[in-house]
Design brief:
Layout lengths: L3 E2 L7 E4 L2 E4 L2 E2 H8 L3 E5 H14 L5 E6 L6 H10 L2 E4 L2 H9 L7 E3 L6 H10 L3 E4 L2 H14 L3 E6 L25 H11 L5 E7 L10 H19 L6 E3 L12 E2 L2 H8 L9 E4 L3 H4 L3 E11 L6 E4 L8 H5 L5 E3 L7 E7 L8 E9 L6 E4 L20 E6 L2 E6 L4 H5 L10
Parallel strand pairs: 5-21, 6-7, 6-14, 7-8, 8-9, 9-10, 10-11, 11-12, 12-14, 16-18
Antiparallel strand pairs: 1-13, 2-3, 3-4, 5-15, 15-16, 15-20, 17-20, 18-19, 21-22
Helix pairs in contact: 2-3, 2-9, 5-6, 7-8
Length: 427
């Protein structure tokens, strides 16, 4: 397996004496000021991850388009925009967020299987880099919208390469049974059709094979299939200048294994010698996961005899990944103690048996009021959160050196019913 061992993937989170800091701020101070549950992100770690990815492909023309789905907070996206990142979006809302956060439209790619015509209109008017098309009907809809607006639509077809990857079955995206993309044979037909349409401009080719991938070899297998398709298209007079290999590089959740962009470059670049193409990547998790934690306080201990429970104030509405994927997130105390370890299920207040942050986990022996940091929570944390059980969503804080910025305030009880009304129109 091609990977790198990272001794401390959370290098901007460190203990100073007994207290856990992120960059120059003590986490306990942030919780005291803004309460819990609280998402905290390290700007330095986000920058470091982007630069690590960007440097790996410095030898070739490339663009790194951050996948907003991972964490779409304007403050987080702005950190990456200032580094030169583009954006991978899957909705009109993400388009608006990317633009507001400072991402140039010319560095935005629009992915997803269900683009609506109003979303296509907004993206065309903004002047995005390209649409990653996922079906013949979607391509026809874009053709109609572009003709109506009299604006040429830049097109890339998303190919489903039917490549096997080692990841959770919910986050594979490049197998034949997945809903994403089209077969290589159908893609060739779509390109031939699009090349004849006056308001479609064929520019690229895209594939995205899955998420949380630690082995880079499937990317090489995918690239081989894409290059074979490009060769057939070139014989038909269709030339593509953007090659989008999606995202999916994994991070260290359970141990110190994290995917290595340099290993990815070594896998891909020898295959691209003498190719006049711009590489495009859509990393999300890799850029932000290890940059974030979720702070939560211990409420109670429950010891029925057969197992132990630690009840905390964060729940599956705040961090859904453990409930959805049985995902592992390290849990660190924000203050070290000598109390010994304690094996327990760490659960939240929600009325679901699936509401847990960890199962049978060795954690510091808890007492009410203890503050814990649920690590690797910067991706698919807040962005997948909800108001289930009518719980206000958490606040978000971005730490940059010694400065802490509130980048999303905590929701209030009034926020929970905003926009609702009783029958008859009474608010």
């Amino acid at each position: 397996m091609s990977e790198v061992r990272v001794r401390n993937p959370y290098e901007t989170f460190r203990y100073v004496g007994k207290d856990l800091f992120v960059e120059g701020r003590r986490l306990a101070d942030l919780a005291a000021r803004w309460g819990t549950p609280l998402y905290v992100y390290s700007a330095a770690k986000i920058r470091a991850q982007f630069r690590r990815f960007d440097r790996a492909f410095a030898a070739v023309p490339h663009t790194v388009c951050y996948a907003l789905k991972a964490n779409s907070n304007l403050g987080v996206v702005n950190v990456l925009a200032r580094e030169g990142a583009g954006a991978d979006i899957v909705s009109g809302g993400e388009l608006a967020r990317a633009l507001k956060a400072g991402v140039p439209a010319a560095r935005i790619v629009f992915s997803g299987v269900g683009k609506t015509e109003p979303e296509m209109v907004a993206a065309l008017k903004a002047g995005i880099l390209m649409f990653n098309i996922e079906s013949a009907e979607e391509l026809g809809a874009l053709d109609r919208v572009a003709a109506r607006l009299r604006r040429a639509a830049p097109v890339s077809v998303r190919v489903n390469p039917n490549v096997v990857v080692d990841t959770h079955h919910h986050i594979t995206t490049g197998r034949a049974e997945n809903k994403f993309g089209v077969s290589i044979g159908e893609a060739e037909k779509l390109y031939r059709w699009a090349a004849q349409r006056p308001w479609l401009r064929v520019v690229g080719l895209q594939a995205h094979i899955g998420s949380q991938l630690l082995d880079v070899r499937p990317y090489g297998e995918t690239l081989d299939k894409l290059l074979a398709l490009m060769a057939r298209l070139e014989k038909a007079g269709i030339f593509l200048h953007v090659l989008d290999l999606g995202g999916g590089l994994g991070v260290a959740y359970k141990n110190d294994r994290s995917a290595d962009p340099a290993a990815l470059a070594r896998e891909l670049l020898p295959r691209l010698k003498n190719r006049n193409v711009r590489l495009l990547f859509e990393p999300g998790r890799f850029l932000v996961a290890e940059a974030g934690c979720l702070l939560t306080r211990v409420l109670y201990r429950k010891e029925p005899g057969h197992k132990n429970f630690v009840i905390v104030d964060a729940a599956m509405n705040d961090l859904a990944r453990p409930a959805l994927y049985d995902a592992h997130h390290p849990i660190w105390p924000t203050r070290k103690s000598r109390g010994g370890s304690y094996v327990a299920d760490v659960v939240g207040p929600i009325c679901e048996s699936g509401d847990y942050l960890a199962k049978a986990r060795a954690v510091p022996r808890p007492k009410a009021g203890d503050l814990w940091a649920v690590m690797a929570a910067g991706a698919y944390g807040f962005s997948m959160s909800s108001q289930y059980n009518t719980r206000p969503r958490a606040a978000e804080v971005l730490v940059d050196g010694a400065k802490a910025h509130l980048i999303r305030r905590r929701e209030t009880l009034a926020d929970l019913t905003r926009g609702e009304s009783l029958p008859g129109g009474r608010p």
